Structures are given as C-alpha cells and as structure tokens.
C-alpha cells in the first residue's frame, strides 16, 4: 500500500512547481495584481549575476505603517532572497500600486520570529498550513524563516 502524503507534502510540492508559483506574475505586470488582494505583493529585483529584472509574488505577513514584511519560505537559499541580499534593488507592486521603489531590510532572527508569531495569531489556519509546508521544504521541524521588511527608500535604508 502506498504511503499517504500529508497536506504539508502536497503544499511543498506545489511550492516547488515553478509554473504554479510564477502564475500570478503576469497579472501584476498587466496591472491586475489587485485581483489577488492585499495579502500578496510582487517583488521586482535584479539578478545578482545577470543584472536582469526578476519577479516573485509572495504573501505579505505583516503591514505596519509604510512597511511591508514578507517571509522567505525557502529560507536563505531562495533566489529572490539571495538577489536582494546581493544588491538590495527592489520595486513592489501590491494592490493598485505598481513598481514602487523600496528599500530592503533583513530582520534579525528574533525580529523575524516576532513577526511570524503575530502572523500566526492573525491567521492561525494559514500559519498551520504554511509552517508545515516550510518545514517540509526545509526538511526540518523548525526551520529558520528569514523575514524581510520593505519600506520607502528614505525611511528603511538601515540594513
């Protein structure tokens, strides 16, 4: 009898499927990102080797004033995270706002855990599913999930 797969294993497989995770990008590029609601954001960044524009759509885990915070579910190995770490070039598209220049701040592990704890309280069902999928992706029960903060260039340029 084949082994039953968990919801976390299914979710991890979906997150590893390139065409699925890239499917929202054309909506944002066409100015229709608002259809996905306020909990999603498209980050345009620059390839650390090529310098070419790259795009990723991720969930916003927290908004505070002008700050938008997102988590890297694939950890520090995700390409978009590595690109931002290398050059810090970011433009955000969320709601009806398109390609807004943003500064990037990489939160400390302690700050990131606090952000994710608040997210878990605000969205317990989503956190249960996402944290299980991230643990599956990382291959460990309590992976380090880096959190990044985007803000206006003149405000958050303190990395």
Automatic annotation (TrEMBL):
Q: Tell me what this protein is called.
A: Nitroreductase family deazaflavin-dependent oxidoreductase
Q: Which domain of life is it from?
A: Bacteria
A molecular function annotated in GO for this UniProt entry is: oxidoreductase activity
Q: Organism source for this protein?
A: Microbacterium hominis
- Please name one Pfam family that this protein belongs to: F420H2_quin_red
Q: Which InterPro entries match?
A: F420H2_quin_Rdtase, Split_barrel_FMN-bd
| SUPFAM superfamilies attached to this UniProt entry | FMN-binding split barrel
